[in-house]
Amino acid sequence: MRSGGRFRACAAFAVAAALALAGCDSTFGQHSPATKQAGSMSDLWRGSVMAALLVGAIVLSLIIFTVLRYRRRGRGDEPSQRQYIVPLEIVYTVIPIVIVLVLFGFSWVVQDKVDALSDNPDVTIDVQGFQWQWQFHYRDEDVTVTGVPDRRPVMVLPVGETVRLVLTSRDVIHSFYVPSFLFKRDVIPTIKNQFDLQVEKAGTYRGYCAEFCGLNHARMTFTVRAVSKAEYADWVAGQS
Q1: What percent of the chain has pLDDT over 90?
Q2: What is the CATH number of domain 123-239?
Q3: So where are the chain's domains?
Q4: For residue range 146-187, what is the model confidence (pLDDT) as tens digits?
Q5: CA 226 → CA 10, 34, 158, 161, 166, distances in Å?
Q6: How far is Cα 234 from Cα 215, in angstroms, rounded to an integer?
Q7: pTM exceeds 0.85 for this model
Q8: What's the CATH fold of domain 2-73+80-115?
Q9: Does residue 134 have a cis peptide bond before it, meaning omega lies within 30 degrees of 0?
Q10: Which residues, in sequence order, are CB contacts of 32 under 8 Å at separation 6+?
């Protein structure tokens, strides 16, 4: 009877775990990466989540095993009450340190990739945030796109080209955020933050100010439209 009850408990747990995992996907809740840099961040996120799930599964399995194997059945059958097992304590101290060091190493590598700047970007855009809109100035093309309260600005980018964004603010702190780029960078007065990105998927992406900046913060949005090189050239010619 005890063996049967134990088997049913384990089977119920396995079914519950399978149902919970069935609701998960490979992105683990993040947006599908649209840029080359976002791909590296996506891999880091998925690897970290899978490592956390593995550690959680091991810990939960050990807890369930201990509860079922060493539960008290009567007087005098308590498990060993030994206080210290030095080799075991060394093992479960070293393992978390190794996990943290490995995650730190991967994070360092990804950060270097995301922050790397090209010597000769194909397109350079000065992005200026102001209460409560955005302005995009294409340096080489001499094209400026400015948002107004009833029309959000559109940033047009060529797919496969290296784009340099230089962020500045006219007034308070804002934050440049495109969820599909898996990236957010502060826009700070008197400070120029810059980064490179390379869009790999043509499409339209929503952008936001992710730093509360005043009364109409929620309306401080913009659109990113990634197009082919030919379409980008046509767009620039039309703007001129």
Answers
A1: 50
A2: 2.60.40.420
A3: 2-73+80-115, 123-239
A4: 998 888 999 999 999 999 999 999 999 999 999 989 888 999
A5: 51, 10, 6, 10, 18
A6: 37
A7: no
A8: Helix Hairpins (1.10.287)
A9: no
A10: 180
